[in-house]
Design brief:
CATH class of the largest domain: Alpha Beta
CATH superfamily of the largest domain: P-loop containing nucleotide triphosphate hydrolases
Radius of gyration: 20 Å
Order of helices and strands: EEEHEHEHHEHEHEHHHH
CATH topology of the largest domain: Rossmann fold
Structural class: alpha/beta
CATH architecture of the largest domain: 3-Layer(aba) Sandwich
Shape: elongated
Oligomer: single chain
Length: 268
């Protein structure tokens, strides 16, 4: 039987740049699943990045995907603009937002689940949330419970959950069980946006065939020629220069920007 008797997310208080659990009985309980007992809020904040080029075709694609699927996976190498796209979509959407930037230190299930659960605090405004204790549950049960938490948080307004750099925990022994339990359990008014350099090493076709998961790959993320020309115009560079760079980079965003910055610097 699952044990739901644990601290509520409302019991976490913000202190400087982390969340610290505070409870009258905390001294008699085992130490937090994160050794420091703290969640660093820089991992739960939307990055301050802005797109230099408006990409309405990608925003529209995400809008359609969020309406059709429970989750959307965005994949591409570093510098393809994945995080910027997600942040721009979140800014333009009607969703309330839970953002979690994953890193390799989060490969411990208790750490990962604590941050995922704690991301609710970024927007929760007094909604009574369910109690959660990942240590007392199997990964599958805890994942379903987390999905239920987000459903409660999204009761008044739809919710977008962004897991950035999720590839950092693909090799974790719990990841497969989490993925196959959490994604299908999401409520209709919750959308999960997964950002990674590659697709997870899992048979995704089942979720895709059931209309649960949509995918945006690197080919879709690359700049079109018109987008490259618009980018270069920001640096007062000609369409001819943009076309030449586009052929050399195959539309890779970071490479185009690097070339534009160098050429702009040389003009000074």
């Amino acid at each position: 039987m699952m044990n739901f008797a644990s601290q509520e997310l409302n019991d976490w208080r913000e202190s400087n740049n982390y969340f610290e659990f505070s409870s009258a009985t905390s001294e008699t309980k085992p130490k937090s699943r994160i050794d420091t007992g703290k969640l660093f809020t820089d991992k739960l904040c939307v990055p301050s990045t802005e797109a230099q080029v408006n990409r309405p075709r990608l925003i529209e694609h995400l809008q359609k995907s969020s309406a059709q699927f429970s989750a959307t996976l965005i994949t591409g190498r570093t510098g393809m603009g994945k995080t910027t796209l997600a942040a721009e979509f979140a800014k333009q959407s009607h969703y309330q937002l839970a953002w979690y930037k994953v890193d390799t230190a989060d490969s411990d299930w208790n750490v990962f689940s604590s941050y995922l659960s704690g991301s609710v605090n970024q927007f929760n405004s007094g909604v009574e949330l369910l109690k959660f204790d990942s240590e007392a549950m199997e990964v599958s049960s805890a994942s379903e419970f987390l999905a239920a938490q987000f459903a409660v948080a999204a009761k008044e307004k739809p919710l977008l959950i962004v897991l950035d750099d999720l590839h950092s925990v693909f090799d974790a022994d719990w990841f497969t069980e989490f993925f196959h339990s959490f994604v299908p359990s999401l409520a209709p008014n919750v959308h999960l946006l997964l950002i990674a350099r590659t697709a997870p090493p899992l048979p995704l076709w089942r979720l895709r065939s059931k209309q649960v998961l949509g995918v945006m790959d690197e080919k879709l993320l690359t700049f079109t020629l018109n987008e490259a020309i618009e980018l270069f115009s920001k640096y007062e560079l000609s369409p001819a220069v943009a076309r030449s760079a586009y052929k050399r980079t195959y539309g890779r965003v970071s490479k185009l920007k690097e070339i534009a910055e160098k050429k702009c610097f040389c003009k000074v």
